[in-house]
Design brief:
The structure holds two protein chains of two kinds.
Chain A: E1 34-35, E2 37-39, E3 42-44, E4 51-56, E5 61-67, H1 71-89, H2 94-110, H3 112-123, H4 127-148, H5 152-155, E6 160-163, E7 166-170, H6 176-189, E8 193-197, H7 204-215, E9 223-226, H8 230-238, E10 244-248, H9 251-260, E11 267-271, E12 277-280, H10 286-298, E13 310-314, H11 318-330, H12 350-365, E14 369-372, E15 387-390, H13 397-400, E16 407-413, H14 416-424, E17 431-435, H15 439-448, E18 453-456, E19 475-476, E20 489-492
Parallel strand pairs in A: 1-5, 7-8, 7-10, 8-9, 10-11, 12-13, 12-17, 13-16, 15-16, 17-18
Antiparallel strand pairs in A: 2-3, 4-5, 6-20, 11-19, 14-15
Chain B: E1 36-40, E2 46-51, H1 55-74, H2 77-93, H3 95-104, H4 109-129, H5 133-137, E3 139-140, E4 147-155, E5 158-162, H6 170-181, E6 185-189, H7 196-206, E7 215-218, H8 222-231, E8 237-240, H9 245-255, E9 261-264, H10 278-283, E10 285-293
Parallel strand pairs in B: 5-6, 5-8, 6-7, 8-9
Antiparallel strand pairs in B: 1-2, 3-4, 4-10
Classes of the chains: A alpha/beta, B alpha/beta.
Chain lengths: 494, 304
């Protein structure tokens, strides 16, 4: 049989396509040499007397040092939050509470550029992403939830939405400021006070947020921001005067938290890991789908709990899609996160880079066919080439376990039933993607996929109005939208 | 607060008086009719020569409102929220001027301050609703057939508003805010006897990133203009915020011409919490229901 003529365009990379660097200036951001804990409206030295470094993962240079909060510090923060709750925040008219939250949103918007630069320096994410996604989305979250503060009676008809008290919140390093916003904004809008712990590798924008909260003149103690590692988080979880735990992080830690609070009345929201299936059907617009797959797995270096880390491609278009993905992989720019041309920045930490390398080895050992971009990596800093695996089976560890890096596991499928079975065959259920031109197929899939968010012909879309959260072992509770209010209230009668 | 600074004899200076014009299509023209009336307060002091708008002014304003509708309705709801918030910011900054005008229009200082503060807070209240009332008013409908079926609100279009006549600012701001929060555009007839704040509020809107034509503010006589408000064929809804029974009947009758949605906000205490709610936004929304098939092939179930 004659070979079918292939009319699709092929990208060529043999000509020079090096772009001149377009570096964002560090001078628009001010980072102090040291940050204390933000407790009761003031920056306080830690009881532990200990500080630890936070580095720029792009060049391993120290950026600043932050305090390590111990149990005594956590206790101090919880007391401040309790005091602020009882004496001020609980009693404040809702519309006044709203105005404080609006202020935070507005000041964040004013300082967006500085926040974006610091986020990129501390987390390694491309400046384009922090500038266009993380920071505006964080500010919009505050703006959105500010509006809910005096409208709760419409969110919970015929029930009175009572605040819970002190919310202990623990956030990850992948979207540092955005996660802080997702946590703090709904908690404040519903009348709770907050003790938040930033991640140990990305504490700086949280401390900048503390300064913004001070500038917004929030009553002292309404928001307290701590830095530290796992033990600090554990102290928050175990503190007897905390009423609510909100955690975003690994499923493993989420389970530890659920056990730790089992004997208490603490309410919990857990946003945990994921292993999202991205499904391409043969009738999908393939270029658009490939773009979506690339964004789905390589956005933020793959440090995304809802990353589309498993790709399922219908057999009839498998070869074409793989070729397009490989082509596109070669065109991704990996490098300095401060460069506006950069698509993939630095891996957040050495530990995470080691984890990713470990999984790449596992993938190869299990018989997967690895393909990585041929791009050069900077000599300093933590970088990983965008990587895909084909010849992967359902039981492969790289298609079962969350890698949290730029590694995509690809499988093929023939029928709708088959791909639904395969996609659902995971303990996780955070998100999924479906690529097809056929609307009715999309709704068939969204009905049957066990995931909290399903993106159809798009991926990794977020909005303050849109609830986000997982099924199964991806956690429970929703953040964002009207649904994001209920984790922070208990309902009573009028 | 606004205190009139008395000029000392050594630095005598003549005050510059403000010309109160109308606000149409993002501009401040005079009435095309060239007519005016003298607004006075209860002490019978002259407030200003005010534009006595004509039918033609109203028609021009409807044209502007219609022209602005697609763009305004098409904006992201959050963006409308930001703009309403911006209006509140601008009003806060010009509080003194509004207090001053309210006092000229029969208010005491304390009452005037209360009214301006409330107007600012009400704008923020509706700013918040811009991207939330849809979540309250939308439904996914569990139809029996294999269809994904949902209903969501959409703005009704151009709204003609006869603002509260016995109140200069808070009523006007309340009806405008609810109307534009939902993505509608409007033509508003200000209080005839107390038109100053309405015109100045136009200036606030004009400096708040509100696109020209989204809000159009006219001054003039209710009895002259009400029939046109109610029978213009390119107006989708009409709000009447006063108590005149004859005008109410007239508006309801004439609205039937093109099935305008007619609402009478005649018993409202604009200072109370009752005067703000998402239901004012929903009065000016249509409900759109969409059906989409769900393919039902294969035996796979969401079993895991």
């Amino acid at each position: 049989m004659a070979k079918e003529k292939d009319n699709t365009l092929r990208l060529k990379f043999d000509s020079s396509r090096n772009l001149a660097p377009a570096l964002e200036s560090r001078s628009a951001a001010k980072i102090d040499s040291k940050y204390d804990l933000f407790i009761n409206g003031k920056f306080e030295k830690p009881d532990s007397k200990k500080y630890f470094d936070t580095i720029n993962p792009a060049d391993e240079e120290k950026l600043s040092e932050v305090a390590e909060a111990n149990e005594a510090d956590v206790d101090k923060a919880v007391k401040a939050a309790r005091n602020a709750y009882d004496k001020t925040w609980k009693k404040m008219p809702a519309k006044e509470r709203a105005k404080y939250i609006y202020r935070i949103a507005r000041i964040m918007q004013e300082k967006a550029r500085e926040l974006a630069i610091i986020e990129t320096l501390d987390a390694g994410k491309p400046i384009r992403e922090s500038r266009d996604f993380d920071i505006p989305m964080a500010a919009n979250h505050f703006f959105y939830y500010a509006g809910w503060a005096d409208k709760l009676e419409y969110a919970f008809p015929n029930r009175k939405a009572n605040s819970l008290g002190v919310a202990g919140q623990i956030i990850p390093w992948n979207f540092p400021l955005l996660m802080a916003a997702w946590k703090i904004a709904p908690a404040l809008a519903t009348g709770n006070t907050v003790v938040l712990k930033a991640s140990e590798t990305t504490p700086l924008t949280a401390m900048k947020l503390a300064e913004i909260i001070q500038e917004a003149d929030l009553p002292p103690g309404v928001v307290n921001i701590l830095t530290g590692a796992g033990t600090t988080g554990a102290a928050i979880v175990n503190h007897p005067d905390v009423n609510k735990i909100a955690f975003t992080g690994s499923t493993e830690v989420g389970k530890i938290i659920q056990r730790a609070i089992a004997g208490t009345d603490k309410k919990a929201t857990l946003e945990l890991g994921g292993k999202a299936a991205n499904i391409i059907f043969e009738d999908a617009p393939l270029d658009q789908a490939v773009e979506g797959v690339i964004n789905g797995i390589f956005f933020n270096q793959g440090h995304v709990c809802c990353a589309g880390s498993r790709l399922f491609v219908q057999e009839s278009v498998f070869d074409e899609v793989i070729r397009k993905i490989k082509d596109r992989l070669e065109s991704l720019i990996v490098g300095n996160p401060l460069d506006k041309n950069t698509d993939i920045g630095a891996i957040n930490s050495r530990a995470q880079l080691d984890t990713i390398h470990k999984y790449i080895k596992i993938g190869i050992n299990e018989g997967g066919e690895m393909f990585e971009s041929s791009c050069a990596l900077p000599s300093k800093g933590f970088y990983c080439r965008p990587t895909i695996f084909t010849n992967v089976s359902q039981s492969s560890r790289i298609s079962q376990e969350e890698i949290f890096g730029p590694v995509l596991a690809i499988q093929s499928f023939r029928t709708d039933d088959e791909v639904i079975e395969k996609a659902n065959n995971t303990p996780y259920g955070l998100s999924a993607g479906v690529w097809t031109d056929k609307g009715s197929k999309i709704f068939n899939l969204t009905t049957k996929l066990r995931a909290g968010v399903v993106w159809a012909n798009t991926f990794n879309k977020f909005d303050p109005t849109s609830p986000f959260g997982g099924y199964k072992e991806s956690g429970f509770g929703r953040e964002g939208g009207l649904h994001g209010l209920s984790p922070y209230v208990h309902l009573g009668s009028y | 607060m606004a205190k009139v600074v008395k000029n000392t004899p050594s630095e005598e200076r003549l005050e510059v008086l403000k010309t109160y014009k109308i606000y149409v299509g993002g501009q401040f023209p005079r009435t095309e009719s060239g007519r005016f009336y003298i607004a006075t307060n209860k002490k019978n002091e002259k407030l200003a020569n005010v534009c006595q708008c004509s039918r033609k002014d109203f028609r021009d304003a409807v044209g502007s409102a219609r022209g602005a509708f697609g763009g305004w309705a098409g904006r992201a709801a959050m963006n409308r929220g930001q703009i309403l918030y911006r209006i509140a910011e601008m009003l806060e900054g010009r509080k003194a001027q509004f207090v001053d005008e309210l006092m000229k229009q029969n208010s005491t200082e304390a009452k005037a301050v209360e009214e301006v503060n409330l107007a600012i807070d009400r704008l923020i209240y509706y700013s918040g609703w811009c991207d939330k009332f849809q979540q309250m008013a939308s439904t996914v409908n569990p139809v029996a057939s294999s269809h994904f079926n949902f209903s969501a609100p959409e703005p009704t279009g151009v709204v003609a508003i006869i603002a509260p006549q016995e109140n200069a600012l808070i009523g006007l701001v309340s009806v405008i805010a609810a109307c534009i929060a939902g993505g509608n555009t409007c033509v508003v007839l200000a209080s005839s006897s107390m038109p100053l704040c309405a015109v100045t509020f136009g200036e606030v809107l004009n400096s708040s990133d509100v696109p020209g034509g989204v809000v159009n503010i006219l001054t003039g006589s209710v009895s002259e203009l009400a029939p046109f408000f109610a029978d213009h064929m390119d107006v989708n809804a009409v709000l009447y915020c006063d108590k005149d029974a004859a005008v109410k009947t007239l508006i309801r009758e004439k609205s039937a011409l093109n099935l305008k949605r007619a609402f009478m906000y005649d018993k409202m205490d604009w200072f109370s919490d009752e005067a703000q709610s998402p239901y004012f936004i929903l009065d000016l929304q249509e409900t759109k229901t969409t059906w989409h098939p769900i393919e039902n092939i294969g035996g796979a179930k969401a079993g895991y």
